[in-house]
Amino acid sequence: VPCFTVMKKNGGFALAVYNPEDQTRRSFEKCYQLTFHADRVHFMAPADYRPGSHLRLILEKHIAEIADRIVDSRRQGVEGSRVPAPLP
Question: Domain range spanning residue 67?
């Protein structure tokens, strides 16, 4: 999954999800390999998007951090573009 490597190198957030009902554990093994051996993803979690689930908590926290960075960036842009009033 080279897209994970490219995304991570460019400051992106990579999250691998696996099917917790997969009796073969192939999806879990792939996520584990991407997370701990290939260093391609930041987190792995079962594909459970319900409120309060591990995956949902990770996603909500990361989205909040992204939103905070956007707000801070825009605030700095506005403050940096202010022109002082002319002196009398």
Answer: 2-79
Which positions ≥6 away from 12 have C-beta within 8 Å? Answer: 6
Closest CA to 44 of 7, 4, 3: 4
**Calpha distance 13→81 (Å, rounded):** 30
Backbone angles phi, psi at 15, to 5 degrees: -130, 125
- pLDDT tens digits, one per residue of 10-62: 888 889 999 999 999 999 999 999 899 988 888 999 999 999 999 999 999 99
Q: How far is CA 88 from CA 3, 5, 29, 81, in A?
A: 58, 57, 71, 21
- Looking at the domain assignment, is residue 87 inside a domain? no
User: Does a structural domain hold residue 15?
Assistant: yes
Residue 13 lies in a domain: yes
What does the H/E/C string look like for 58-70?
Answer: HHHHHHHHHHHHH
